[in-house]
Amino acid sequence: MTVVELLPNRITQVKTDERDGYRAVQVTYGESRPQLLSKAIAGHFAKSNVAPGKALIEFRLAKAEAPICSPARSSRWIDSAPARRSTSPE
Asked: What is the DSSP letter of 80?
């Protein structure tokens, strides 16, 4: 049996063609103590009004892809439906 833990992601920034030159969604996960962060990273989390996480991860979007979400509606980015479990190997 394989156990996979999915931590909730929090959106820290939505990058756009107009402002950043490319399209992407930047997320963080988990928790990190604020005193372990550099001032620049702490300021980034504070500006987006998100609790500090373990890492900042960016997912680029193709030109044709519609935006997934906005920072104000980050709870809609991840489907909250429970995962299906299988007890027998396939």
From this structure: -
